[in-house]
Prior knowledge:
By secondary structure, the protein is an alpha/beta fold. The chain folds into two domains: 3-57, Arc Repressor Mutant, subunit A (Orthogonal Bundle), CATH 1.10.10; 69-264, Rossmann fold (3-Layer(aba) Sandwich). Helices cover 39% and strands 22% of the residues. The protein has ten helices and 15 strands. It has helices at 3-17, 22-29, 33-46, 69-73, 77-88, 105-116, 136-142, 167-174, 199-211, 249-257; strands at 19-21, 50-52, 55-57, 98-101, 129-133, 148-152, 156-158, 163-165, 180-184, 187-189, 193-196, 214-218, 230-233, 240-243, 261-264. A seven-stranded parallel sheet has the order 6-5-4-9-12-14-15, sandwiched between helices. It has a three-stranded antiparallel sheet with strand order 1-3-2. Strands 10-11-13 form a three-stranded antiparallel sheet. It is elongated.
Amino acid sequence: MFxxxxxxxxxxxxxxxxxxxxxxxxxxFSITTETVRRDLAALELAGTVRRVHGGAVSPERVSTxxxxxxxxxxxxxSEKVRIAEAAxxxxxxxxxxxxxxxxxxxxxxxxxxxxxxxxxxxxxxxAELVVITHALPIAARLSGEPAIALxxxxxxxxxxxxxxxxxxxxxxxxxxxPDIAFIGTNGISATFGLSTxxxxxxxxxxxxxxxxxxxxxxxxxxKLDAETLVQFASLKDLDTVITDKQPGPALxxxxxxxxxxxxxx
Length: 265
């Protein structure tokens, strides 16, 4: 196979899966890792991939890239619904206790399912589940539900994510202790942990992680092995990760070493 043909296939592989590792490419094409690195260098120069530690990612996948909540809501929708369905099983049907729902498209799918779920047979007629959020779309969806006691954390609303951020939001998060926090993330990495592109969003997420008794991360497989600009939690801070695809070997090993339960929906 000519180098040009191989490089075109590498571009297609990266476009399809979001990233490709040097070792996987070397094995796939029966070439040395040095040859793979030369191919990746040529492709990066051409602007068709971006090199990262251990491989390459799509050129659009940079540490500060962030799509709006409206754009993310329609992406990988079926996968996000499956993740949300698995998360819903962790919320008591008797409407007891308290939960926190972070901003995000997958957490928004969880709010949709929660609003539609009938109470379990053991629920008292006047029972209410306490739900805390800083996300306007989630608050709007749950505000009319009689079985939910909704608490909205205030702050400056960031238009891109429609979520409250800033020091007042962080301070409010530090004063609560919900039973479960359902956290969204832009990336989850074996070495960098959980990350998001915006520092203010990261500060709020970090406060959520430190406040809740149990941390459940909802992350579709596009977030696996991704690193964005600001870390807000390490893997050892987490209790459960719910995703739609088994993590790769390095991330799976890191999650196991950190004692994190992985649920594949």
